[in-house]
Write a structure and sequence with these properties.
heterotrimer, B: alpha+beta, Arc Repressor Mutant, subunit A, 2 domains, 7 helices, C: 571 residues, Rossmann fold, 15 helices, elongated, disordered C terminus
């Protein structure tokens, strides 16, 4: 079956020749018209549209956006904050970068509609520190919007006021975790908070009710406000509505970002047709479908079971290539859609070395607050690093897995899973490579294969 | 602390962006580092005083975030992405090229004072791997050859300055 | 006596047992009340909850209700309401008891969680228990007996961190032992209000540190040592002096101010090695000031009075008491008594008896410092209220003995009995001291003991039993930790013998017997006895003294009544 055509909603103007990131260009393309119309509606109606749209968060967890908004504690009387999570840092993910650099007003418009819908008077865009230009572009865009009375006091004469500022991170993956991000925005070490009691919707930024939404998610809000929740829900597949930007990197012919209706394209179509297949002379070995923390898929493994299609339960029997790229299908086969970052590895890659690379990332990024993640992530790094540096033991694979099992599900935040899942899945699915590594003290890999650690 | 009036103005502009002064910790550290090149103990104490915090509150933050430096670095900061997507396409070789070109080691200032080469974690541009940031500029698809070319360019600029 | 308010109770189920606990109690405390230990490191009942150690993971569930009808869903197997168990383990410290909450602490999953956390905490922890001061009271050591693997699977290099960092004059830090629980940081920030500690760097390399150039030197720094669950923070005073399991623990009180922090005195073979706070939620929670921990040093101080003296020559106690009796007779009608706010309630009662027999006026010396708003109050006498309760005085004392000085100058007072007070420090001049004969009861040498006709060496608080009344009018007891120093005599014995020598009745010195007299004669002490007084004390009815202008400001668990009265009034 040929791959469906891309459906560019969020990335409509990305890389479009002549499209610039200033307000004039954005307005020429109909910019802020949706916001104007939205501001004429009762806020509750907008929340309802988003609920009806079925939009799920694009940051990683896939939590329904409308539900997140309705959890807001509006009775407290405290101000409500919006924090835009622009800390894009899950390895393999590079979608928000292009929105912010090339189409910042789309994000601002989506955010302002979100603010209006939830009676937010102050929004912050928390952008990762490694995007200095992105921060400047957003600051300039906000200034333009402010000058045009689209942000700030009494917006477009509606009596509604909302301020927006850019806040730069400084190189910490954990700031992508929403409560870690809030702590960082409060000027502290970004230690994720315990939940309960610190659910952002109740006790978020400055202990006030807070919405934390991903950049792509907020852009979708603009389009939901534009076409309506019901129409949006018709894009994609049931429970996996809208479009999704899939970021492909690693060993494919044409890496890059592609926007498709959610669930309308399979992993095989994406990698083989859209991305042009493996590099010359190589075959696919493994793929991480949703950012580096998602469990790895091994080409050749099969997934069987029953799933709901409409009202019916139907059997499925999929190879990796057959899996539709949506939250539910990827969840069903034991991994996740996560942040949409697809990392492909071909047969030149040693999975022990790939894991060592990923373990180094998580050991470096663990905030160190809670015991299992702090100690476990570095221990896993030390084991896998020792393995690739010539001192692998036959029992190391099992030890790695056991350490990972002692982390997942026991930490303050989801970083515990993020750092444990790679190890759990690599050792389970590529166990023979781990034992072989101990036997030969190095990986069986072709000459010229790249170093990973 | 000897900050330029421009930086001081930006500091005073950013503090009221937040309902609590402490929130301005990261913005102030960024502004100071942009001007001074690194965060000195004096800077930590200055920020603490400015934001009505204890110095330890600022010190904790400075040491957590890798982008804040406590020591001066080379004139140019070369940050090579180390994470998987870039490594799969030769990020380690890219890094080694920069190290060799400037006769330096990771995290050190090169002997000519021109650069500091560092491995950093994912720069979120995995589709154009391997990527390198030189100061604020992102360079895409930097294989060993392109790394050599970028190094040469830096050297030429260095010579022109002298 | 004042009864505490009754809290609202909720019933939770812990390992199959129902237990009613006050609403808001967290799962660790609820389990404790049910006799179930939930191991933990970072949680401390008097600090904010951070949930970082993950040792208190337990299984939790709530009774299932039908989402539509809200009717309970019954489990046919048990006939009870079905429990909806949360699949993931939850931390006990951050979960408060709600009605019907079910907890399981003994399942394989919970055991596995504890073993996992223990292994993680130990991989980078040095194996130096044999030389570690914390051994014997180390939570890590304790829990590893229950949840340790017994061998290590960790063959990598351990993290290297700073060792022997002097954080301040009294606290030493070994970062390699630190398990990053943040108790000390939270204490410094939340209780001592001295934010000098923090974590620097990140991940497994995170390190506890004091800001360079600053010191952990506030007067509460040693509490960080008390609450450190491991041997990361140790006391420079106690370090390497004695293994804790050799030490005997005696309940005592901090006598440095009217707060009356509850303490434990740790001693062996007559020597005191350290003083630590004892939990009293109505007084000092689990804290005490560093200054109060130094007081034990007075027991073996070089200037300790070690022999009774008469006119400068060593004497037996009998001879000294006889000499005092003679003196009382020869100066009958011209004797004054200077009592003390540092004496125990029982001693103050006997002092009053002595004054009555001698028909002597009584003065007390106030001792005023700056209150720190925490556990050291402005009134540096621990027992001024005891003197009020026993009727030794009726008004608050002044810092100087002005009236007595006038009486001495006028020749109306020729003999002064000074109970532990240095008259020179209280304002009497050398000339005035020279004009009078002094009977001095005291522990240490000073100007008054040097000038005294009769010196009667007595006991420090660590060598005797008794009670004190703190700023809240809470009657609290202290107990003898070490034997009396050679040459000294219990203050009660001395006072009782002085009463007899002055021609008064024979009064009991045994506390049980003496308390019968006290209870009969002092209305505020009503039906109490020394033996029945709870370790955390009893609040007395303070109404008779409510109008007195006490000098204490607000401190932990204390609000001055004057502050209440002036609230809302313009300054």
């Amino acid at each position: 079956m040929p791959a469906p055509a891309q459906r560019r909603i969020i990335f409509q103007h990305i890389d479009e020749p002549g499209y610039t990131n200033d307000l004039a260009c954005y307005r020429k393309h109909g910019g802020y018209e949706v916001m104007k119309r939205a501001f004429a509606r009762p806020p509750a109606e907008l929340v309802d549209e988003v609920k009806k749209s079925g939009l799920r968060g694009r940051g990683g967890a896939g939590f329904p956006c409308g539900v997140k908004w309705t959890l807001l504690d509006k009775k407290s009387g405290k101000p409500v904050y919006l924090v835009v999570n622009a800390d894009e840092s899950e390895p393999g993910t590079f979608k928000d970068r292009y929105i912010m650099h090339q189409d910042p007003h789309q994000l601002i418009e989506g955010s302002m509609i979100t603010c209006f819908a939830n009676n937010v008077k102050q929004a912050y865009i928390y952008i990762r520190g490694e995007f200095p230009h992105g921060a400047r572009i957003l600051e300039k865009a906000i200034a333009e919007a402010r000058a045009a009375n689209l942000v700030g006091p009494n917006i477009l004469g509606t009596n509604y006021s909302c301020e927006m500022y850019v806040h730069r991170g400084a190189g910490a993956y954990i700031c992508g975790e929403e409560t870690g991000l809030i702590e960082s925005l409060e000027g502290k070490r970004p230690y994720p908070r315990i939940k309960p009691p610190y659910f952002p919707a109740v006790l978020g930024l400055y202990q006030c009710p807070t919405i934390v939404n991903n950049v792509e998610t907020l852009c979708h809000v603009k389009h939901i406000a534009d076409i309506g929740g019901e129409a949006f829900a018709k894009i994609g597949t049931p429970n996996n509505t809208g479009t999704r930007i899939l970021c492909v990197s690693g060993h494919v012919q044409r890496p890059g970002y592609y926007e498709f209706e959610v669930g309308k394209i399979t992993l095989g179509q994406l990698l083989n047709e859209v991305c042009g297949g493996p590099l010359p002379g190589r075959t696919f070995k493994a793929v991480i479908p949703g950012g580096s923390s998602a469990k790895v898929l091994k080409f050749g493994e099969r997934f069987k079971g029953k799933r709901k299609v409409g009202a019916e339960l139907v059997d499925y029997d999929w190879g990796v290539e057959d899996v539709p790229m949506d939250f539910d299908c990827l969840g069903m086969i034991g991994t996740m859609g996560g942040s949409g970052g697809v990392i492909v590895m071909d047969d030149s890659v040693s999975m022990v070395e790939a894991l060592a690379n990923i373990n180094a990332f998580y050991a470096h990024e663990s905030c160190g607050q809670c015991t299992p993640c702090r100690e476990g992530s570095l221990w896993m790094k030390k084991i896998s690093s020792r393995m690739v540096h010539g001192a692998a033991r036959p029992e190391d694979g099992a030890l790695l897995k056991s350490v990972a099992d002692q982390i997942a599900g026991r930490t303050i935040c989801a970083f515990g899973e993020a750092c444990a899942w790679p190890t759990q899945s690599y050792v389970t699915k590529f166990g023979e490579e781990f034992s072989a590594y101990a036997a030969t003290k190095s990986a069986a890999k072709p000459a010229g294969a790249t170093e990973l650690v | 602390m000897n900050l330029t009036p421009a930086t001081l103005a930006r500091i005073d502009e950013v503090i009221p962006h937040y309902p609590t002064k402490r929130s301005a910790t990261l913005p102030l550290l960024h502004l100071i580092q942009e001007e001074a090149g690194f965060i000195s103990p004096e800077a930590i104490e200055w920020v603490a005083a400015k934001l009505e915090l204890q110095p330890i509150n600022v010190y904790e933050v400075v040491t957590f975030y890798p982008m804040f430096r406590q020591k001066p670095i080379g004139r140019r900061h070369i940050k090579v992405c180390r994470t998987l997507s870039c490594a799969l396409l030769g990020g380690y070789k890219t890094c080694a090229t920069f190290e060799k070109e400037f006769d330096t080691h990771l995290g050190e200032v090169s002997p000519d004072g021109e650069v500091t080469v560092e491995f950093v974690e994912c720069l979120a541009s995995c589709g154009t791997a391997p990527v390198v940031m030189i100061d604020d500029e992102l360079h895409e698809k930097v294989d060993a050859a392109k790394a050599k070319q970028l190094s040469d360019q830096i050297k030429v600029e260095a010579k022109a300055r002298k | 006596m004042i009864a505490p308010a009754k809290p609202e109770l909720v019933t939770v189920n812990i390992d199959g047992r129902e237990v009613a606990v006050p609403k808001g109690t967290n799962v660790i405390e609820a389990a404790r009340q049910a006799g179930v230990d939930v191991p933990h490191f970072c949680y401390h009942s008097k600090l904010s909850v951070v949930g970082n150690c993950r040792m208190c993971l337990v299984e939790m569930g709530l009774p299932t209700v039908d989402p539509a009808t809200k009717a309970p869903v019954m489990d046919p197997a048990t006939g009870k309401q079905k429990i909806n168990w949360i699949p993931r383990p939850q931390i006990g410290c951050a979960t408060n008891a709600t009605p019907g909450l079910h907890i399981r602490t003994q399942t394989p999953q919970v055991k596995d969680c504890r073993e996992g956390v223990m292994e993680f905490l130990l991989i980078n922890h040095p194996l130096d228990c044999p030389i570690c001061d914390q051994a014997g009271e180390c939570k890590l050591q304790e829990q590893s007996t229950g949840y340790g693997r017994g061998y290590s699977r960790f063959i990598e290099q351990k993290n290297v961190k700073p060792k022997r960092t002097l954080l301040g004059p009294r606290v030493m830090l070994d970062d390699e032992r630190c398990i990053l629980c943040s108790r000390c940081i939270r204490f410094s920030n939340e209780i001592a209000k001295d934010d000098v500690l923090g974590f620097i760097d990140r991940g497994s390399y995170s390190t506890l540190a004091c800001y360079p150039g600053k010191k952990l030197e506030n007067n509460y720094s040693l509490n960080t040592v008390d609450i450190c669950p491991v041997g990361a923070l140790t006391s420079t005073d106690f370090r390497f002096k004695m293994r804790v399991w050799f030490l005997k623990q005696t309940n005592s009180l901090d006598t440095e101010s009217s707060v009356g922090a509850n303490t434990v005195v740790w001693s062996r073979e007559g020597a005191i090695y350290r003083i630590t706070p004892r939990q009293n939620d109505g007084v000092n929670d689990t804290w005490m000031a560093d200054s109060g921990r130094e007081l034990y040093k007075q027991v073996a101080a070089a200037d300790r009075l070690a022999a009774a003296k008469v006119s400068g020559a060593d004497s037996t106690l009998d001879a000294a008491i006889t000499a005092a009796g003679d003196l009382f007779k020869s100066s009958a009608g011209a004797v004054a008594v200077v009592g003390s706010g540092r004496s125990s309630v029982e001693e103050q009662f006997l002092t009053r008896k002595l004054a009555t027999v001698l028909q002597a006026p009584v003065s007390l010396v106030s001792r005023v410092g700056k209150g720190d708003g925490i556990l050291v109050s402005a009134d540096r006498n621990p027992n001024v209220r005891g003197a009020l309760v026993t009727g030794l005085i009726n008004a608050l004392p002044a810092p100087k003995l002005t009236d007595l000085a006038v009486a001495i100058d006028a020749g109306k007072v020729r003999t002064v009995v000074a109970v532990g007070e240095d008259l020179a420090a209280a304002g009497l001049t050398a000339a005035q001291l020279a004009k009078i004969a002094i009977v001095y009861l005291g522990t240490h040498a000073n100007t008054t003991s040097a000038a005294a006709r009769i010196v009667l060496p007595s006991l420090t608080v660590f060598e005797k039993n008794g009670t004190l009344v703190n700023q809240q009018f809470r009657l609290q007891k202290f107990q003898q930790a070490v034997p009396a120093a050679i040459g000294t005599t219990d203050d009660l014995v001395i006072l009782s013998r002085l009463v007899a020598a002055a021609g008064g009745p024979t009064l009991p010195v045994d506390l049980t017997a003496l308390w019968k007299v006290l209870a009969a004669e002092v209305s505020a002490l009503g039906p109490m006895s020394f033996a029945s007084l709870p370790e955390t004390g009893l609040l007395l009815d303070a109404t008779p003294w409510a109008a007195l202008p006490f000098i204490e400001g607000e401190s932990l668990h204390y609000q001055p009544s004057s502050a209440k009265a002036t609230e809302g009034r313009p300054a």
